[in-house]
Amino acid sequence: MFRVVIVEDEDLIRKGLIYSFDWINYDCIVVGESPNGKDGLEVITELKPDIVITDIKMPFMDGLQMLEAIENRNFETVIITGYAEFEYAKKAIKYQVSEYLLKPINHDELGMVIENLIYKIKNKQMIATLKKQVKSFSDLTLLESDVYFNESNYECRYIPDMLRYIEDHYNKKISIEDLADELELSTTYLSRKFKEETKHTFSDFLNKFRIQKSLELMTDGDYKIYEIAEKVGFSEYKYFSQVFKNYMQSSPSEFLQSNVFLWDKD
């Protein structure tokens, strides 16, 4: 569940947010509360919430001062403000404030805000997971080219021909039937030999090779995703996205969003 802390000096508003809003429905739980910014700073530091909802004007320390005092703001922030304070509240942009709620607080509006924040949090978590999995472009290798394209590694003399065929035609619509016709051999024989020697089916190897090529194109930054899909032999973007996700555990757009390719360029 997503952890929420509410910092608000008006007891009626603070308690109302805690007890009258259906947090469970949004997979959230209120883990802490505070009536002022000074105490709120301690609560946030100790509980490390995912979402902080805070008023601006409060005794001892206002909401913006509280946010400024937190060094690592690893949470999404919602500012509660009155209409007269709204322009002042917008200054909170530098404190990475995500949303604003005007008093009196409407529960439907709060619900939409929470849904938006949860989407952002999940997206950040996905990106963090990708960055842990992929430390550099070299980690993205799906197929070891030096191994698979070394002819001396195969007993069946047709395997190198099949691999060269994939390398030369991966950007077109091809199948093992096309290759069988070209080599004048049976599809069954080629499929069996290919699997025996490469440990991949022809289709799996072709898809991995194509996705590998798509990763290389992504590093260039010169193409849109649908253009990359076409360049590596996928006529339908939807199918490309499906195959990409099967191998990389994320969609092409999510993968690009994680900026994993920038690390080798620093």
UniProtKB/TrEMBL annotation:
Taking every annotated instance into account, which residue ranges of this chain make up the domain HTH araC/xylS-type?
Answer: 160-258
Which residues does this entry mark as bearing 4-aspartylphosphate? 55
Q: Which domain of life is it from?
A: Bacteria
Gene3D superfamilies recorded: 3.40.50.2300, Homeodomain-like (1.10.10.60)
Q: Does the keyword Signal apply?
A: no
Keyword Ligase set for record: no
Q: Response regulatory domain location, by residue?
A: 3-118
Question: Per the UniProt entry, what is one GO biological process?
Answer: phosphorelay signal transduction system
A GO MF term? sequence-specific DNA binding
**What keywords is this UniProt entry annotated with?**
DNA-binding, Phosphoprotein, Transcription, Transcription regulation
Functional summary from the UniProt entry = May play the central regulatory role in sporulation. It may be an element of the effector pathway responsible for the activation of sporulation genes in response to nutritional stress. Spo0A may act in concert with spo0H (a sigma factor) to control the expression of some genes that are critical to the sporulation process.
Name listed for the protein in its UniProt record? Stage 0 sporulation protein A homolog
Ranked from the top, the taxonomy reads: Bacteria, Bacillati, Bacillota, Clostridia, Lachnospirales
